[in-house]
Each structure stands twice: as C-alpha cells, then as structure tokens.
RNA sequence: GGCAGGUUGCCCGAGCGGCCAAUGGGAGCGGACUGUAAAUCCGUCGGCUUUGCCUUCGAAGGUUCGAAUCCUUCACCUGCCA
C-alpha cells in the first residue's frame, strides 16, 4: 500500500459526519475511525451519468466528498462511463439504455459539475476517474473468470432491490449484473491507486459492500465503506421533487431562482436535517439557527440560511445575492407599483420573464401559457376560475382580459402570479 | 412450445356495447387558515377556436347506427404445464 502522505488529518471528521446524520450505514466504525485518524485515506465516490445533470441526491455525495477532502483525505471522483451504459437496478423497473454518445456527453457534463467542489492541487489532490478505462478492454471470459467467480448468485438474489424487482415483474441480466461492475470499480481503484474507502447513497449500500467484499476475496485486503441516508420528507416520501421533477444542479435545467425557492420552502420538520447535510456551517452555527427557529418559527431563519448557503455552494454568491433581492421584491407584499423599474426588472428576470410588444398584447390566459406559469390554456383558464391568477398582485377574474397601458408597472412590466408563490414577468416593449 | 390471466389518464386502480374524457384513491394544482412551514377543510385535475369539437383506455385491423368494453392478428408482462 502506498498510503500515508504527510497530510495531517482532522481527527474529528467521523464525529462530525455522525452528528450531521451522514452515516446511515458503515463498516466497522472503530476500524473506520482508526483508518481516518491515522493518515490520509484514499476514498472514492461514484456518479453514474444517467442524465445531463446531477441532482439534489448527488449533491449529498459531492459535499460529503468535500468534507473528507477538507479533513485531509484524498478523493477519487468516479464518473461511470461504463456503469452508465448498464444502469443500476431500481424499483421503478427496467431502465432504457442510453447510447454511447449520449453517455459520453453526460460524463463530460457531470464531471464539470463535480470539479468545482474539489481541490485538484496539494498533497491530497482529487483525481477524476472513469470506469470505462478498466472495463472497455476487458474480455467477457476474463470478466466471468476473475470477477464473476466471486459473486454467489444466491447472495445476489437476496439483495433488496433485486428481490423487489423479481416480485414486481423481473429484471434483465444486464441490470442484475450491475453490482459486479461497481464492485469491480472498487477493486480496480484499490489495485491502481490504493483506494480503501467508498461511500455513496444508502440505496448504493449493496453495491458498495459488494466492492469491499470483492477486495477481500480477490486480494485479501481490507476496505472501508459507509452510506449516506436517503433524504426524505417528514412523511417518509422522497425529497427532491418539485413542480417539474428532480432538483437539478444545472442552471439551464432548473433556474437558480427556483433552486433557491425550493430550499426556502423546506418544511420546518426537515430544516435541521438539511442544514447539517447540505451546508458547511459549523455545529455551533447550526445550533444557534435551530434555537432561533424553535423560538420564532415564523421568521424562517432556518429556511433562509439553508437557501442562502446551498444556493451559494451550487450557483455562487453573486447569483444568490441577486435571487435574494428578487425574492425580497416579489414576496415583499408591498405594491408592485412602488418598486423601481430596474429593481422589478431584475427580480422578474430571476423569476423568469418574456418580452411582448405592446401592439400585440396577448390575453391573460395566453400570457400564463407563454411564461410557463400554466402548461396549457385549459390550465390557465382553470387558474383564473379558481381565483389563483394574479396580475400585479391583483386577482384576475376574466380569462380573456387583455392588459393595457394602465396595467404596466415599473414603466414597462407586467407581474404575473399563479397561486401564492409562482411569479413571472412580462416586459412590454 | 401449450394453456390461462393481464396491458386504462402522472401513479395505483374501477369500468366489460351507448348514460365514458371514463368511479375511487394518491400525487399535482388552486382557494381558505398560516410563517413563501406542517396539519386540516373545500375546489380542481386530457386538449381546443369550450353550451360544442378533437384526441385518449398496449398496437393494427374488423363487427356495429355506436366499442375502453365484442372479434382477429401482433407486441410485452404474469402464472401454470412442457
């Protein structure tokens, strides 16, 4: 083993991870602690390119990797060009295979999303790896002899996801074999780079321990592992869904404004957990926020801190400041007409705005559709009928209403709102 | 390969010749109450040029004045038998 650089490690790391609730499962904790306090541990965490962007769940892993690196350990971030071609089995059924070009493109995008969070310099510099590098040239015979031989099918069948899939209608051999690939990754990184720790989401625990087991069987080596918890709401349902779907980190797939709003709307019961998992605020800072929140929940101090810190991590301080200003303007509760034109314009720009010419002003229903506030005219009409459509914070009653010059605020803006918190702007030229 | 059952709207699941754009539940959306929270209650929930029209009930044909509902073929899934 080529372990042990001169990097000094933070002995409180494991306690901090535990306090943050990041250890849902782990291999022997005392052994893990011993490893993490004695020297810089080379660890890996993998991301499969199953979409053009990573999402909220992946962010947990990215931030955890950074916590480990900050504590002196050495990251290997794996983007699965190979595993992404196969697909990790999930309860919702067989995945559709993506072609090689698509996967290759997504690998590039996912790498670019991870890189800003890690440091690629210094003694414990991070390394990006791709499992295509050690699988592309592997022959089927070698794979079956060297890897497959270590996997008893009865054990594979006993895995929860596989069991559920067998009951729910079956699983292809392709997805059934996924665990072999991910396990092989751990072994490959162990052999090539001396990686001895893997972590991932708790839904990956079976794959992770599969790797540790393979290292033991194939090399007689010891590997460590832990899993972060699945993020759920207080009612037990999965987090990470909002209006449209997943919470993407890519600003073109989810606007930073919408991302910020998601955090600002986190339910009280989850704020504490979220602050611990998704921010680098210290224990003292978080406990102070919790105290404030418990005392005066209506101030929403927890949600505000969460939204600010997480949005800053993902989209930067400049963008976050813009969004905060926009939110203050839109949710301020004051008369829209009192806002300065440029303030209003900037706010609506964050929330999402379109431009129309004064001579071709559409009806309120069409404006709702064009701004994306409603998915169809029927939905827009329904919003009006239900009293959920507002122009400049005043309820609109007539679906066919066409805004005129008197409705402009801030010089040349229309402020559309659906329900309590969905705003869009229309710039009239 | 044989036999039986299944494939319904975002999800689950009724319907079994007209009264079906299709019961019910969940999710979503809106309203009320709030703190841009939770819980609760109410409403809504295919599309449109909206008293009507169009497209949906695995796919393609067919029977019928008329089908998600009947028939034929195909695809996929499940179970039983080889």
From TrEMBL:
Q: Which GO terms describe its cellular component?
A: cytosol
Q: Give me the residues that bind L-tyrosine, please.
A: 44, 178, 182
ATP-binding found in the keyword field: yes
Give the protein family: Belongs to the class-I aminoacyl-tRNA synthetase family. TyrS type 1 subfamily.
**HAMAP family per UniProt:** Tyr_tRNA_synth_type1 (MF_02006)
Tell me how this protein assembles: Homodimer.
Q: What does the UniProt function comment say about this protein?
A: Catalyzes the attachment of tyrosine to tRNA(Tyr) in a two-step reaction: tyrosine is first activated by ATP to form Tyr-AMP and then transferred to the acceptor end of tRNA(Tyr).
Protein name, UniProt field:
Tyrosine--tRNA ligase
The species this protein belongs to is: Nocardioides acrostichi
What gene, per UniProt, encodes this protein?
tyrS
